[in-house]
Design a protein that fits this description.
The complex is a heterotrimer of chains A (about 250), B (about 325) and C (about 290). In chain B, about 80% of the residues lie in helices and about 0% in strands. Chain B has about 325 residues and is an all-alpha fold. Chain C is globular and about 55 Å long. The chains are: A alpha/beta (about 250), B mainly alpha (about 325), C mainly alpha (about 290). At the B-C interface, α5, α11 and α14 of B face α4, α9 and α11 of C.
């Protein structure tokens, strides 16, 4: 079953077409990758499917429903979570506060609950803290709950960003360059974490430049160049695809 | 730190309860009462500026709307203060909700410029709509709060305690707001809107809520002001009121809970007590705002926080 | 008809002042990304300096204006260096609050020095001439002409000289400008100086046909913001055209619609634009 489909997805900034006519499918339960030279439109593609940017044309279907032009927060509530390229966190908050924010979409308490300290608020806060602990535990940050996010190492911040994305139990997780800026050993740790996340039933789609990691993790890979899909297939197929070689060599 | 934190509310309450008894005369008692009212206004501004990170410059307008609602209901329709005040808060909150829905679609600088213009429009309308507001003449003879059961609010000292009670309520409400999931949502919006949206938060709804709460508190402050002072002119909604509140918030520490109250007491208090400050008030205020933002952008609250962190390390 | 023509002429005179002020504001916003809430107060200060030099030092009007413009340029550069440059990498809230502080400070200083009373500068050009059958004071014509000449000169400077191109490049794309080796600090300082100087010219030009008082800056700042929002934040042609348009709308609206709410025109225009286009009429280059 296809979890996510795009049909002719296009985004133009003025005259520049950052993403052009991309048809793509992500199978439920898979780990897929998106690669391509710098400026190929990979992050824009993520921004489109996560609702951060409205597409110029084309359609997005998530779990069989047309979700084109839904805003980001509604996509998140439907089960699509993401991390950002430059690891983005709520820097001045503690690790657990970050993750609690990620759980907020699951709770309903509003202003009045806060003012009168309702029973619902207390119940939901317990629930949120439990979920946050589980998520921190999953990414291996159980001991860092009360540390400020900006006092964590680069690698820990990447893990925290994943906990933040995972705490609300999404069905699709988009990772934008999860291995950028960390060393080989830390990458191995993250690869294991991503595999664990996928094994838990979360479909993963990632953008990455580190080919080794991509080839190891992904069952299918899509290649973008100048906003267009130029190839798609298994890692072995992509490795041998002349169009892909052309795109990379041509750019370098 | 922890012991300081535990005792701080009690100490503050004792100081607040004692202050009205300590001030030497009627004049200073009124100043004190106004200080409490302006502290409520500063707490309100802090909700949108400090908690949600949106620099709204329309707050004098909301203060004016609250004040004029109470004043006009009382003088034109004979509505008692205790009915007028909640009406004033509701009217201001409704304005806040509507204006917030429009202004918050503009972001960053645009939002600030937009709200500054909206604040000025409210001020000019109050000033020029003479058939309703009496323009520059203002509204006179606004009845103050009537008695609740056996408690009367005719004396200055009783009014002072009443204002203090409202300030305490404001602090409790904003504290509960800040330390709730709603407060965490606002923090998330302040720190990064794209990330907040990506984790499923409705950024617009969160900002609108903060703006409405913030306006409602400004309306409460305005309503109290009208009832306590007894007369009201258009200068109550002058944009200078916004700038003063902003200074109070900045001195105490943006985003901290009791910072705005401390800021109000320091700045407003000193400016009333010290003759030099009275004469050069705005010169010093303006310079103070610039120096604060350059050298102490987190205000007193930030200073205390960094002291306590240093203290724990050594 | 004659009333209409008279109002159009008034609009053009006021408009040239608005355009000069809006031009400075838009240049600063473009290069520094600071909405300079104190901009109108530089205009106010320029007017007061000219007033003092004419009435106290007995200087000729134009000489006084030259000194005032130079003084404001220095003040503008100092503001950039001492206040806004240190805040460039701070949250955007901080620079805005600093601008508000500068604004309060300048107004209070003016109040201390010159008091609350309205002041007036005498123009050396008091004659009245007839233009298409309308009687106009010489000063108004000179004002409109001088402002127009200055704006044309500035446009030439921005488009034809290396320094001007650097400013435009920085306004359009600060990161890009840095990449191609433009010293953005120098550009920012020069822009601030120029913007303050323009404000001083505008303030000095209007002083003889208007009144000078400490809070005269607030209103013009807000009007300049309205102009710049309509014309596009950072856009030079937008500021020039917008200034004239707003002044015309005000003088015609004030005559034919309501004189009481004439001052509201700018804010209503601003609010309407933002209501329907939350990022202004012309989006900034992404």
């Amino acid at each position: 079953m296809m979890l996510l489909e795009t049909h002719g997805l296009t985004k133009a900034f003025g005259g520049l077409r950052a993403v052009e006519g991309v048809d793509h499918q992500v199978a439920a339960g898979s780990i897929t990758g998106i690669i391509g030279p710098n400026g190929a439109g990979k992050t824009t593609f993520f921004n489109l499917i996560s609702g951060a940017l409205p597409p110029t044309s084309g359609r997005i279907v998530f779990e069989g429903e047309d979700v084109t032009r839904l805003p980001a927060h509604q996509m998140a509530r439907r089960g699509l979570a993401r991390t950002f390229q430059a690891t983005t966190l709520f820097a001045e908050a503690t690790a657990i506060e970050n993750v609690l924010v990620g759980y907020r979409q699951q709770t309903k308490s509003g202003l009045w609950d806060a003012l009168i300290r309702s029973g619902r608020l207390a119940r939901e806060e317990r629930e949120a803290h439990d979920a946050a602990r589980v998520a921190l535990d999953l990414v291996g940050l159980a001991g860092y709950a009360d540390k400020l996010a900006n006092s964590l190492t680069q690698e820990q911040q990447k893990r925290l960003a994943m906990a933040l994305a995972l705490v609300a139990r999404p069905r699709l997780l988009l990772l934008d360059e999860p291995f950028a800026g960390i060393n080989a050993e830390q990458s191995r740790g993250l690869i294991a974490l991503i595999e664990r996340i996928a094994a838990g039933g979360v479909t993963v789609c990632l953008i990455e430049h580190q080919m080794q990691a991509v080839m190891h993790l992904c069952q299918r890979i899509m290649v973008l160049d100048y906003g267009k899909k130029i190839a798609e297939g298994t890692p072995d197929e992509i490795r041998l695809d002349p169009a892909v070689l052309e795109a990379y060599l041509g750019h370098k | 730190m922890s012991s300081l934190k535990r005792f701080a509310p009690g100490v503050a309450l004792a100081a607040g309860a004692g202050l009205p008894l300590l001030v030497p005369n009627e004049y200073y008692l009124q100043i004190l009462t106004q200080g409490y009212v302006f502290a409520i206004l500063a707490c309100g501004l802090n909700v949108i500026v400090g908690f949600a990170g949106q620099l709204s410059l329309a707050h004098a307008g909301f203060f004016g709307i609250g004040a004029y609602t109470v004043a006009l209901l009382a003088t034109k329709a004979g509505v008692a203060f205790w009915l007028g005040l909640p009406a004033g808060i509701i009217v201001t909150a409704a304005f806040g909700h509507a204006i917030g829905s429009i202004c918050l679609r503009s972001k960053g600088h645009y939002f600030s410029i937009f709200t500054l213009a909206v604040g000025l429009i409210i001020h000019i309308v109050i000033q020029k709509w003479e058939s309703l507001t009496h323009g520059h003449v203002g509204v006179i003879g606004i009845p103050g709060p009537g008695s609740i059961g056996p408690i009367q609010f005719d004396s200055s000292i009783a009014r002072s305690y009443l204002a203090l009670a409202f300030l305490a309520l404001t602090l409790v409400a904003t504290a509960r707001l800040l330390r709730s999931p709603v407060g965490r949502t606002l923090m998330a919006v302040r720190e990064s809107e794209p990330l907040a949206a990506a984790v499923g938060l409705d950024v617009m709804a969160a900002k609108r809520l903060a703006f409405t709460v913030s306006a409602a508190l400004a309306g409460l402050a305005g309503g109290l002001y009208a009832g306590f002072i007894g007369f009201l002119g258009p200068e109550s909604s002058n944009v200078e009121v916004t700038f003063n509140s902003l200074l109070y918030v900045m001195v105490g520490g943006m985003g901290s809970l009791s910072g705005p109250v401390a800021g109000t007491f320091i700045v407003y208090g000193l400016s009333q007590v010290l003759q030099v400050l009275q004469e050069y008030q705005m010169v010093i205020f303006g310079l103070g705002l610039v120096l604060l933002i350059l050298f102490m952008p987190t205000g007193l609250a930030g200073l205390i926080r960094s002291w306590s962190i240093r203290g724990r390390r050594s | 008809m004659e009333l209409f023509a008279q109002q159009v002429l008034n609009g053009l005179v006021t408009g040239s002042v608005y355009s000069l002020v809006a031009l400075g504001l838009t240049l600063i916003y473009g290069t520094m990304h600071v909405p300079n809430f104190a901009h109108g107060h530089l205009y106010m200060l320029g007017a007061y300096l000219t007033y003092t030099l004419v009435t106290r030092a007995g200087l000729n009007y134009w000489a006084a204006m030259a000194v005032s413009v130079a003084a404001l340029a220095v003040l503008g550069a100092a503001l950039e260096r001492l206040v806004f440059r240190p805040l460039r990498h701070a949250p955007h809230l901080n620079a805005m609050i600093a601008a508000l502080g500068v604004m309060l400070f300048l107004e209070a200083v003016a109040q201390k020095i010159w008091g609350e009373e309205f002041r007036h500068v005498d123009s050396p050009h008091t004659g009245v001439v007839s233009v298409f059958g309308m009687m106009v004071t010489e000063h108004r014509l000179i004002l409109a002409g001088a402002a127009a000449a200055l704006m044309v000169g500035l446009l030439l400077f921005l488009t034809r000289t290396v320094a001007g191109s650097a400013i435009r490049a920085t306004a359009q794309n600060p990161e890009g400008a840095l990449l191609v080796g433009i010293d953005t600090n120098r550009v920012a300082m020069a822009t601030f100086a120029m913007s303050a100087a323009l404000a001083a010219v505008a303030g000095s030009l209007i002083a003889p046909i208007s009144l000078v008082y400490p809070s005269m800056g607030t209103m013009i700042t807000l009007k300049a913001f309205a102009i710049v929002v309509v014309g596009g934040m950072g856009s030079v042609p937008g500021a020039l055209a917008g200034g004239y348009l707003l002044a015309l709308a005000e003088s015609l609206g004030g005559t034919y619609i309501s004189a009481t709410y004439q001052d509201l025109v700018a804010f209503v225009v601003l609010a309407v634009v933002f209501t329907f286009r939350p990022s202004g009429l012309f989006k900034e280059a992404a």
